Amino acid sequence: MDTMRERFASVTSRLLDEDPRLAVVLADIGVDGFAGAARRHPERVVNVGIREQLLIGVGGGLALTGLRPIMHTFASFLVERPFEQVKLDFGHQGVGGVLVSAGGSYDWPSGGFTHMAPGDIGLLDTLDGWTVHVPGHPDEAETLLRHAAAAGDDKVYVRLSVQVNAAPRPVDGVGFRTVREGRGGVVIAVGPMLDNVLAATEGLDVTVLYATTVRPFDAAGLRAATGAADAADVVIVEPYLAGTSTRFANEALEDRPHRVLGLGVGRQELRRFGQLDEHLAAHGLDPRGLRERIAGFVPARTGQ
């Protein structure tokens, strides 16, 4: 199976052939994947070198000319380092584009903290009008990339990851999808966290929702999943900073008694490289860690 980044390069290269409005801007990351597209469309595949602020600035400039730019590099260099340019060159100027990241929270542990971005979604939450997709499988990434490329002049962030679920799920770029139904609470699994959440909640009487589009937050979907219960218990499992989406769940359920538990990446930096699975376990995002915390939070009854 190809990775999400490999699928991104192949799909976007085909989209460049199909849509003369699209352009790709790179910062020395992922250049090889676009070598063929660059030969065919040298005016619409631009590598600015290791200049991430310029990456966003060039993308904003292309958007002002009527093109739809797709900008790509590691999340820490795409959202965090050039955040002022994201805020001004897209938000302030009122233009749209697509940010496609790699690296996630700790996809490449040996790269160190400079190549980790667990706070990227939280940072974008300080801005207005961004759609955020977090696919959990390369097939889902392709669908969501196509949505993003065709999304008019919207501002879209697509967060790619090395961690993937074993099988893709149908995604539509809008709301949450019900994967399992129960009565003892609702667990929202974001993108690549789904398989671990399903393993962790096996035998628990909970509803599991799958979220690959997290902004806008599907408040209606969450309300429907909690049903007419007098009170609601909600757990959100995200592959980035713990608690990033709890505010949105609280707002969705503000008219009824509820509790929300946000699980995700901790704020304390892990200073050992390790491997991806070791980072998941250290943050309690492996099946065992999730089972302990979810079972300790939702009503203690098992499915029948």
Automatic annotation (TrEMBL):
Coiled coil: none
Gene Ontology MF terms in the entry: magnesium ion binding
Annotated ranges, domain Transketolase-like pyrimidine-binding: 2-168
SUPFAM superfamilies on file: Thiamin diphosphate-binding fold (THDP-binding) (SSF52518), TK C-terminal domain-like (SSF52922)
Name of this chain's protein: Transketolase
Organism (species): Streptomyces inhibens
Organism taxonomic ancestry: Bacteria, Bacillati, Actinomycetota, Actinomycetes, Kitasatosporales
